[in-house]
Amino acid sequence: MASLQGYLIVSTALFGIGAFGFMARRNAILMLISIELMLNSVNLSLVAFNAFIPGARNAGAIFALIVMAVAAAEATVGLALVIAIIRTRQTPEVDEYDDLKE
Amino acid sequence: MLAVGILGGGLAVVTLRNVIHSAVAMMICFGSLAGMYALLGAPIIAAAQVLIYLGAISVLILFAIMLTQAGDASLPAPFHRQAPIAVVIALVVVGLVAWAVVTTNWKAAPTAAVVAIEAIGTLLFTDYALPFEIIGFLLLAAIIGAIFLARRPEEDERAN
Questions:
Q1: Are A33 and B26 in contact (CB under 8 A)?
Q2: Which residues of chain B are within 8 Å of residue A35 when distances are taken between CB atoms?
Q3: Given an 8 Å threshold on Cβ–Cβ distance, is A14 in contact with B6?
Q4: Which residue, B40, B130, B132, B136, is the most exposed by fewest CB within 10 angstroms?
Q5: Mind spelling out the 3-state secondary structure of chain B?
Q6: Three-state SS for A58?
Q7: What is the mean pLDDT of residues B94-118?
Q8: Residue B149 pLDDT > 80, yes or no?
Q9: Cα B64 to chain center, whole Å?
Q10: Residues near B152 by Cβ (< 8 Å), separated by ≥ 6?
């Protein structure tokens, strides 16, 4: 199991879980958490490639760090947006945000 | 073992009804991921994972949940109507990627190589100096944007 393919399978499964959560959950904060899960799964695959592919020259580790920083920025702005929306709409359920439909 | 923590935590995140329980499951998932990074010979990434995800993003999300919870009287249905379609799409994506993973010959080394922290630091300030600077600028922009978005209009009027 401790081979490159094992790690990649775990990463793929985590990405699928995050994708399902993003598409299926109604809570806006849960959707952001699902995005974080997907970013983490990509990080895991980057680090696994970096560890197991010989000519990687640490590029995978560096890009994992960069992805983490971008994820932090995304979480900050995303949560600020969600809090602002919830403050005006009084609900975190995304299917209640249907003003454009009417 | 760590894979069980990661996938179980992830599944708990997307299926639990209570948002706070989901956030705790997310922290379990991120902690297991940090352990897996250490296992993969990348202790610097594991440390960054603990600092950024467990330390910063989890607390940020818990604060957001605290600020937005209307009270625990009624927990609404967690899923959209199209949740079955979402299951199918996610399974198709996972199946395709897993098929690609299994059938590709990766020419991988049998054991994980250890990442030297000195090499990471040197690379960040030589070959990857431009992405590094762009990240600094992006984080500054994110801070300003978050302050702007989370500000209440009344506070402006009071300030004037």
A1: yes
A2: none
A3: yes
A4: B130
A5: CHHHHHHHHHHHHHHCCCHHHHHHHHHHHHHHHHHHHHHCCCHHHHHHHHHHHHHHHHHHHHHHHHHHCCCCCCCCCCECCCHHHHHHHHHHHHHHHHHHHHHCCCCCCCCCCCCCHHHHHHHHHCCCHHHHHHHHHHHHHHHHHHHHHHCCHHHHHHHC
A6: coil
A7: 85
A8: yes
A9: 15
A10: A87
The answer to whether the CB atoms of A29 and B49 lie below 8 A apart is no
Residue in chain A lying closest to B77 (CA) = A26
Residue ranges, chain A, pLDDT below 50: 1
pLDDT of B160 strictly over 80:
no
- CB contacts < 8 Å between A and B, how many? 237
A86 near B CB under 8 A: yes
Q: Rounded to a whole number, what is the distance in angstroms from the first to the last CA of chain A?
A: 53
- pLDDT for residue B154: 66
What global pTM score does this model have?
0.88
Q: How many CB atoms lie within 10 A of CB B32?
A: 21
Chain B residues with CB-CB distance to A95 below 8 A: 80
Residue of B45, B14, B96 whose CA lies nearest to A45? B45
Instruction: Give the list of residues 6+ apart from residue B104 with CB closer than 8 angstroms, or none.
Output: none
Pairwise CB contact (< 8 Å): B94 & A15: yes
